[in-house]
Write a structure and sequence with these properties.
Blueprint lengths: L25 H13 L12 E6 L2 E7 L8 H9 L7 E6 L11 H8 L3 E6 L9 H8 L4 E2 L4 H7 L1 H9 L3 E9 L3 E3 L11 H13 L2 E5 H7 L16 E5 L20 E6 L7 H6 L3 E5 L1 E2 L2 E2 L1 H10 L4 E4 L3 H9 L5 E7 L8 E2 L15 E9 L2 E8 L3
Parallel strand pairs: 3-4, 4-5, 6-14, 6-15, 8-9, 8-14, 9-10, 10-11
Antiparallel strand pairs: 1-2, 1-3, 7-16, 12-13, 15-18, 17-18
Length: about 400
């Protein structure tokens, strides 16, 4: 049994602000809300993915997760699903309820109207329009509200949203498929296939839940990728395709311009460079984004801020080596997904990561490994990255 923390921004100074110890079973119900939230990941930008369950008499009587932007929030969905059984029930939500009008009415209004008895919330919402106001309102009306329930898990679910709120930048995940000796291709450039089918399928699951997939122009020239989502079970959603092409040198014949996909292809170039080729690329459907930079190198922070203005919260970077190292050197990469294949290529192969300027082992960049698992015969490592 754990004790619920005091919420951020609590200025009431009342005994109502702390409902006491977390009731038995609360964490198990919050895990059910987390399962609901996972159904919304990658489908709610610019909003966070939230899940909620309504519990009455020891059973779940209502479930819900955030609809696409403009649709009902998770709490409203779960309460509607519960119907009359919501009265006197407990509500478990992975994010604190909102108390403001946006595209939808406040979730607190739905909670109060339904006659919910108690509320259990996971993450605190850094959105300044929320920021504890919903909790304070409900507690001010005498409703017991627990906060911080399984907050580590609920926070991890919405890292992209939280980073966007706090920094004005999307979350950046680097993803690479490499041999055990760190090579993503042979000396001739052959890279098909480094990993086996299960790991390649996982890449498509990643694309299905991010907002954009980003590569350098060199990767497009070498591999001619489609950068689409092809789930083994079918379905899925193509993310925005972003290519760093500083001087707009890509050929309009590359397949990512001729996919018939509803997702767009965005070419990021340096202001004033490649303008003579802009018309030909626009004619095959490419969108062009001019950002500051220098010859051969776009400014990554400007690129990411521009992507956030397009409601891109999570960017999956898939190469190549120079792009990976540029994100690391600039301190703009947040996480890493590395698929390791049980094979050796040798020193003449192409490393997945470009130079980082590390001269002594003490200066090597640390990563914080969060998870390791087998994907068929390949090994997946997921880690958090930080500044040098």
């Amino acid at each position: 049994m754990t004790t619920a923390p005091t919420p951020r921004g609590d200025t009431a100074g009342s005994s109502k602000t702390d409902p006491g110890a977390l009731p038995p079973g609360a964490e198990a119900w919050m895990r059910e809300a987390l399962a609901e939230a996972h159904l919304a990941v990658g489908r709610t930008h610019p909003n966070p993915a939230v899940g909620a369950v309504v519990v009455q008499g020891g059973e779940i009587v209502g479930r819900g997760h955030t609809a696409p932007a403009g649709g009902p929030h998770a709490e409203v969905q779960a309460i509607a699903n519960a119907g009359p059984r919501a009265r006197g029930a407990d509500l478990f939500t992975t994010l604190e309820p909102c108390d403001h009008y946006g595209r939808t009415p406040p979730c607190t209004e739905a909670i109060l109207a339904a006659g919910i008895a108690r509320v259990f919330a996971g993450s605190a919402d850094p959105n300044p329009l929320v920021d504890g106001r919903g909790v304070l309102r409900l507690r001010g009306l005498g409703m017991p509200v627990w906060t911080g329930v399984l907050s580590a898990e609920t926070d991890a679910l919405n890292r992209p949203f939280f980073k966007a709120m706090r920094s004005g930048l999307p979350w950046v995940t680097l993803k690479a498929a490499v041999s055990l000796d760190g090579k993503l291709a042979t000396a001739s450039g052959d890279s098909r296939w480094v990993t086996a089918e299960a790991a390649r399928a996982e890449v498509h699951r990643l694309r299905n839940v991010v907002d954009a997939v980003l590569v350098g122009a060199g990767t497009v020239r070498a591999d001619d990728p489609s950068l689409t989502t092809r789930l083994p079970e079918g379905g899925g959603r193509d993310p925005l395709r972003v290519v760093l092409d500083s001087a707009l040198q890509l050929s309009p014949r590359k397949q990512l311009f001729h996919l018939g996909s509803p997702a767009r292809t965005l070419l990021v170039h340096v202001e004033g460079q490649g303008t003579e080729r802009a018309a030909a690329l626009a004619a095959v459907g490419a969108e062009l984004l001019a950002v500051p930079g220098r010859p051969g190198e776009v400014d990554l922070e400007s690129t990411l801020r521009a992507l956030l203005r397009r409601d891109v919260l999570h960017v999956l970077v898939e190469g190549g080596p120079g792009v990976f190292s540029a994100f690391l050197l600039s301190g703009l990469a947040d996480s890493l997904v590395l698929h390791l294949a049980p094979k050796l290529v040798g020193g003449d192969g192409l490393s997945w990561l470009g130079p980082l300027g590390v001269e002594r082992m003490a200066g090597a960049r640390p990563v914080r490994v969060e998870a390791v698992r087998w994907l068929g015969e390949d090994l997946e490592i997921r880690a958090l990255l930080g500044p040098a």
